[in-house]
Description:
Helix content is 70%, strand content 0%. The protein starts with 8 loop residues before the first helix and ends with a helix. It is mostly helical and 179 residues long.
Amino acid sequence: MSRRYDPERRQRIIDAAIRVVGHKGIAGLSHRTVAAEADVPLGSTTYHFATLDELLVAALRQTNEGFAKVVAAHPALADPRADLPAELARVLGEWLAGDRTGVELEYELYLAALRRPALRPVAAEWAEGVADLLSCRTDPVTARALVALLDGICLQVLLTGAPYDEEYARDVLGRVLGR
């Protein structure tokens, strides 16, 4: 039997892993569950990803793009005349108002780095990437503080189920920026 050429298979496996984590959590992730979700042979998942950590790294890298894309898509964040705390609070509100399942999934994969050291560099890439985007408006240390604050606000909203308070976010972001 000849091998079927399937250049999209690796991506389908990553997408399937993200869906599995979204439905069952990281505890439900296995090569077998991903293969079933992606409708590929089990050997395909292990061919492309020898370990679950490799698969999780690829999934985390892909999901990390969500918030960074939202930030990058707002040119006002780079505009020195724009009110940075207000713009960041608005962007965060838009992100949290979107598909909450996607935001929760990003954080589940992000927080998996606590127990899976292979994921830590990817989690750090996310924080550094967003800080780099914000560094055009402030110094690098303050940019990192803003990322930490944005991260904390997101976690509080997700974990408590409380509605996002844009005014509060704008106020505390302004305090970090000395405004």
